[in-house]
Structures are given as structure tokens and as C-alpha cells.
Write a structure and sequence with these properties.
The structure holds two protein chains of two kinds. Chain A is built from no helices and eleven strands. Chain A is mainly beta. Chains A and B meet through strand 5, strand 9 and strand 10 of A and strand 4, strand 5 and strand 8 of B.
């Protein structure tokens, strides 16, 4: 079946370093991808999205890269801060994309060491 | 309201009992989604509602699960004859309309524990 998976369950980084969280997706026809951040006891929060016709998109301190050749997605966080500690999920919207249904990966826990 | 509100925030129930989980979406949002998040897992789609259209129930795991949305606003997810494998966090999200990318707002979820 369709799945979106994350390579590493936990990532530990030093405060101030850059973080890279990876994700593999299986449906080559998916045309929209989203990264979410989930803090303990809260629902997922939108971080950044990217359409399949793009390779890179930048936000504030975050960059998403999409490699359609190998069906790989990554989230880069610059100058990681303690407040970035959370679980990060990638999600895709497979066709038909007008349903808005998201397929989520299992999540990567980001731990920021002071 | 300002955000998506879910109640209760925590629910402990005995195996075999029925439970109802409530979701109040953001006012004016016509699309409403239910997801389930098992421990250490990603979110699993359950059902979505869009306006007055028939809901997409394709993600409901069994006929013990049902959901309704009254008046295009509040939604209730009902689990009958709960089983231990139903233990999870149930998350609701709303969106201005189906397919509006990135504009989902999630609630904080209901943590269901079946003992």
C-alpha cells in the first residue's frame, strides 16, 4: 500500500547547528507534500509545503527539498533552537489530490541539546 | 472559535463500552477530517466531511466506527464496543474547504485509553 516513511526515528542536534530530517514517499504521482511539527500534547502544526513541480522551497529558518527521482523529501532547519524540539512528520497528498486526504509518515523526534 | 476544539482531552473506558469524541471546527471551515494516531506512529486518515456532500468514510477501520457532522459544524466520532487496539489519540482537523493545501488546522486531540 501507499506509505510515507522516515529514515530515522530520533535526531539529536546541538543548539545552533543545522538539522536535516529525511522522508521517503512511495507514490510517484503525489503532487503535494507538507511538513508538520507536533509538540507533546498538541496537534500537528503546519511548517512548510511544496508542490511536485518544485525542487526547493524556503521559509523562515526552514527549507524543504524534493527529489522526485528517488522520491525523497527533506526538511532543513537552520540554527536549531530548543523550541524546535518536537516530532516532525512529512505527509503527502496522493491523487486524487482534491480530497485533501493526507498520508503521514511515522515521524522523527528532534532533540535539541543546549 | 479561534481554533479546533476537541473534547474530552482524555478518555479512559472499559473494553466493550461505547465512546463519543467531539470536534468543534473553526467557524466557517467547511471541511472536517478525523485522523487516528497510535503510539509512536504517524496519523492515519479515518473520515472527512465537506459541506453537505456525503462523507468519505474510506479510512474507518471497522463498522464499530462511525461519525456524523451536524449542521455542517460540530462532528462526533463514535466507537462502539471499544477494543484495546482502539487506544490512540484521535485528532480532528478543519479546513476552509477540501483540498485547500496546507490550511488544515488540527485540534489537540482526544487521548483514548481502553482498559
Amino acid at each position: 500500500g501507499e506509505s510515507v516513511g522516515l529514515h530515522l526515528p530520533t535526531l539529536s542536534v546541538q543548539e545552533g547547528d543545522n538539522s536535516i530530517i529525511n522522508c521517503a514517499y512511495s507514490n510517484s504521482a503525489s503532487d503535494y507534500f507538507i511538513w508538520y511539527k507536533q509538540e507533546s500534547g498538541k496537534g500537528p502544526q503546519f511548517i512548510i509545503d511544496i508542490r511536485s513541480n518544485m525542487d526547493k522551497r524556503q521559509g523562515q529558518r526552514v527549507t524543504v527539498l524534493l527529489n522526485k527521482t528517488v522520491k525523497h523529501l527533506s526538511l532543513q532547519i537552520a540554527a536549531t533552537q530548543p523550541g524546535d524540539s518536537a516530532v516532525y512528520f512529512c505527509a503527502e497528498i496522493p491523487p486524487p489530490s482534491n480530497t485533501g486526504k493526507l498520508i503521514f509518515g511515522q515521524g522523527t523526534t528532534l532533540q535539541v541539546k543546549p | 472559535g479561534a481554533g479546533v476544539s476537541q473534547s474530552p482531552s482524555n478518555k479512559v473506558t472499559e473494553k466493550g463500552k461505547d465512546v463519543e469524541l467531539r470536534c468543534d471546527p473553526i467557524s466557517g471551515h467547511t471541511a472536517l477530517y478525523w485522523y487516528r494516531q497510535s503510539l509512536g506512529q504517524g496519523l492515519e486518515f479515518l473520515i472527512y466531511f465537506q459541506g453537505n456532500s456525503a462523507p468519505d468514510k474510506s479510512g474507518l477501520p471497522s463498522d464499530r466506527f462511525s461519525a456524523e457532522r451536524t449542521g455542517g459544524s460540530v462532528s462526533t466520532l463514535t466507537i462502539q464496543r471499544t477494543q484495546q487496539e482502539d487506544s490512540a489519540v484521535y485528532l480532528c482537523a478543519s479546513s476552509p474547504r477540501v483540498g485547500v493545501r496546507g490550511l488544515y488546522t488540527f485540534g489537540s486531540g482526544t487521548r483514548l485509553t481502553v482498559v
